[in-house]
Amino acid sequence: MKNSVSLRIGLIIKHLNLNVNSFSKAIGLTNNVTIGRIISEEREPGYQVLSKILTTFGSINANWLITGEGEMFLRLGESRETSELSAVLPKPDNSHDELQDVPLYNVEKTLGLIGLFSAGSKQIIDHIHVPDLPHCDGAVHVTGDNMYPLLKSGDIVLYKKVYDLINDIFWGEMYLISIEANGEEYISVKYIQKSEMSDHIKLVSYNEHHQPKDIHQNKIRALALVKASIRINSML
Questions:
Q1: 161: which residues sit within 8 A by CB, 6+ positions away?
Q2: pTM, to two decimals
Q3: What are the residue boundaries of the structural domains of the chain, listed by start?
Q4: What is the pLDDT of residues 167-218, one digit of tens each?
Q5: Long-range contacts formed by 172-176: CB under 8 A, 24+ apart
Q6: What DSSP string describes 33-44?
Q7: What CATH topology corresponds to 5-88?
Q8: What are the beta bridge partners of residue 204?
Q9: 102-230 adopts what CATH topology?
């Protein structure tokens, strides 16, 4: 559809002499894939993206952006009232992150979780789009059975990186964790609970056959909060 909102967003970017990345950053989108896919796939953007564009660039004619009628920019001296935006914009969809595309990584090829966090973009398998998903930094396939049957090998977990490995832990939540064990990196999904031992954390499995384990905080190499999981039951 040539006369589409996605086309007009592309025209705005061109007129402002920006690119997709700089435009996404300007309107406050953490994921620049969103704008890129809206334009390349001629998707109709939702309330959040349109609102961010019109709020950031106050001189853009909201009616032109939504309907294509009128000029791209308001005339000199014209201003836009908040009530005008409410009348023109579609109703909010209440999604957490408009058209969020979460990268699915091959953690094995990044030589561990630390490698994934530092250079994961080189090992993207695909992108995952789930409506109403809170912001996630990435996704990986689960291996092992320590969280079975809640999670099984082959399931996908979507995560948010944790930068303060001690102070930002939410006790009792599920985490993707990398720890040092006998000079090697061990990656797993576990519940993290407080330990009775000083400067330790307790790793707890959902699978009752795996016993809880206390590890010293300095053994943690990388950590990510599990925000969601995906299971494919059949390929038919």
A1: 117, 137, 138, 222, 223, 224
A2: 0.60
A3: 5-88, 102-230
A4: 788 999 999 999 988 888 889 999 999 999 999 999 999 999 999 999 999 9
A5: 173/225, 173/226, 174/147, 174/225, 174/226, 175/223, 175/224, 175/225, 175/226, 176/113, 176/140, 176/223, 176/224, 176/225, 176/226
A6: HHHHHHHHTT--
A7: 434 Repressor (Amino-terminal Domain) (1.10.260)
A8: 191
A9: Umud Fragment, subunit A (2.10.109)
